[in-house]
From TrEMBL:
Protein name, per record: NAD-dependent epimerase/dehydratase domain-containing protein
Highest taxon above the source species: Eukaryota
Domain NAD-dependent epimerase/dehydratase: 81-376
Gene Ontology terms for molecular function: UDPsulfoquinovose synthase activity
GO biological process: glycolipid biosynthetic process; sulfolipid biosynthetic process
Family: Belongs to the NAD(P)-dependent epimerase/dehydratase family.
CDD domains xrefs: SQD1_like_SDR_e (cd05255)
Pfam families per record: Epimerase (PF01370)
One cellular component (GO) term of this entry: membrane
């Protein structure tokens, strides 16, 4: 049973409907510049879709008694894992996986991802339950309890309470604004993204230093930090000989959005604190994740993971499968004239089942004190064209005719480029990848078909332009000031 509020002292006091509901601009105006004060809307925002009031969230914690006896396979040195962002796409699947493996897990999440949907009029294709319902169902199914701390890690007092209460051996940090298009909507979202991500990560580093100096930080970065250099991408570091002298240096970063830039800055801050304070950290430069199911999220409808398909939060393959399911052409970004498309643009991809396993491998094999490790976390590389072909073939098998449409590229990025990124370190630790088989496509496509009635086609097309930052996207139901 979900228990008492452990942090009543920092719990929010909400006005009772006297203040008008706040839109996103108010939220970010309150949130972004305020490093010390409240980042929470005073009276919550109205749901754009349902009209219901979305209660603001701030520094509240819900706790339950923990499982005390992990299986022998889990080392006591890494037994207690705090999953920041555990209500999100990667975090939810990871929290359940670690719990199933016998780790003692606590989720820390501000639930702000759900708020973005409310504000932008977007929503997950799969109907996800509230975090409280999810955890209750998990307890029912597995007999295992996952602690829950609801609050914003940019509020240090809240984070301090989480650390002191849970005393983690490892922190897996997924808790960031993770959409590049979101960060390119307008100034307020660019500022929000960098503030949320960079301040949140600095707070985690300070919390480790002050309350759990032995704690291992496993931080989710992205392969997008590297950009697309015309040489092989190494795992974090490159040895360079220059004017007769040789050194091993951080691999150059060429981020291509305010979101990606926030991740680059995170990496620098983490590397610095490893050196300065002896923090132990693993930076997982993750590729694009696809898929919905892990064995744990499949155990019950109430445990289902989110699946984003809209132009702001949907990632390439997930988006393609949803498009295919409703007969919408696959939207391959390229120049309007179709003469050159981004079909050769290549990225690293991985199955969500591998995301959870990679994180587990990193936790079970922690970095040494003072060590800053970087793993490139993806299993296969595909060009957009190859992905589109795979989806078309899988669609044929299900009797769906899949077409491809080239749409103007909203991003500023190389249209054709060399791409060869190393990814051996997680394999060396024992990762056995799930490759992008047609079976997986069937399962992604079948999920999309199952929930096709929920698809809102007006959310599919890319709506945010890197060059026209500040133009209100169509997904916004009402215009913001
Ligand atoms: N999904 C991908 O394909 C992908 C690829 C590469 C890297 N990543 C990285 O993995 C991480 C997780 O991605 P995801 O797809 O699960 O994102 P997501 O948006 O689904 O989940 C992020 C979660 O973090 C929470 N959160 C955000 N800011 C917070 C804060 N200040 N305090 C507390 N909670 C906060 C959100 O409410 C959300 O539940 C991100 O850091 C992202 O950059 C994801």
């Amino acid at each position: 049973m979900i228990g008492s509020c452990a942090f009543a002292a920092t719990a929010p006091r909400f006005a009772s409907g006297k203040t008008p509901a706040l839109g996103f601009a108010d939220f970010t105006r309150n949130a972004a510049p305020s490093l010390l004060g409240s980042r929470t809307p005073r009276n919550g925002a109205l749901s754009a879709r349902t009209g219901k009031r979305f209660l603001p969230i701030r520094a509240t914690a819900v706790k339950e008694a923990r499982n005390r006896d992990p299986p022998a396979a889990v080392s006591p040195d890494c037994r207690k894992v705090m999953v920041i962002g555990g209500d999100g796409y990667c975090g939810w699947a990871t929290a359940l996986h670690l719990s199933k493996q016998g780790y003692e897990v606590a989720i820390v999440d501000s639930l702000v991802r759900r708020l973005f949907d409310e504000q932008l009029g977007t929503y997950t294709l799969t109907p996800i339950a509230s975090i409280q319902e999810r955890l209750k169902k998990w307890k029912e199914k597995s007999g295992k309890t996952i602690d829950l701390f609801v609050g914003d890690i940019c509020e240090f007092q809240f984070l301090e309470s989480c650390f002191k209460s849970f005393e983690p051996n490892a922190v897996v940090h997924f808790g960031e604004q993770r959409s590049a298009p979101y960060s390119m909507i307008d100034r307020s979202r660019a500022v929000y993204t960098q503030h949320n991500n960079i301040v949140g990560t600095i707070n985690v580093l300070f919390a480790i230093k002050e309350f759990s100096p032995e704690c291992h930080l496993v931080k989710l970065g992205t392969m997008g930090e590297y950009g697309t250099p015309n040489i092989d991408i190494e795992e974090g570091f490159i040895t360079i000989t220059h004017n007769g002298r040789t050194d091993t240096l951080p691999y150059p970063k060429q981020a291509s959005s305010f979101y990606h830039l926030s991740k680059v800055h995170d990496s620098h801050n983490i590397a610095f604190t490893c050196k300065a304070w002896g923090v132990r950290a693993t930076d997982l430069n993750q590729g694009v994740v696809y898929g919905t199911f892990t064995p744990e999220t499949q155990e019950d409808e109430a445990l289902i993971n989110r699946l984003d398909y809209d132009g702001i939060f949907g990632t390439a393959l997930n988006r393609f499968c949803v498009q295919a399911a409703i007969g919408h052409p696959l939207t391959v970004y390229g120049k309007g004239g179709q003469a050159r498309t981004l079909e050769f643009s290549t990225r690293g991809y991985l199955d969500i089942r591998d995301t959870v396993r990679c994180v587990e491998l990193a936790i079970a094999n922690p970095a040494k004190l003072g060590e800053f490790r970087v793993f490139n976390q993806f299993t296969e590389q595909f060009s957009v064209n190859e992905l589109a072909k795979l989806v078309t073939k899988a669609g044929e098998k299900l009797g769906i005719e899949v077409k491809t449409q080239s749409v103007p590229n909203p991003r500023v990025e190389a249209e054709e480029h060399y791409y060869n990124a190393k990814h051996t370190k997680l394999m060396e630790l024992g990762l056995e990848p799930h490759f992008l088989s047609e079976g997986l496509l069937d399962s992604l496509l079948n999920v999309a078909i199952k929930y096709a009635a929920r698809i809102n086609t007006s959310l599919i097309m890319p709506d945010v332009s890197w060059k026209k930052i500040g133009v209100t996207p169509r997904t916004l139901v009402s215009k913001q000031p």
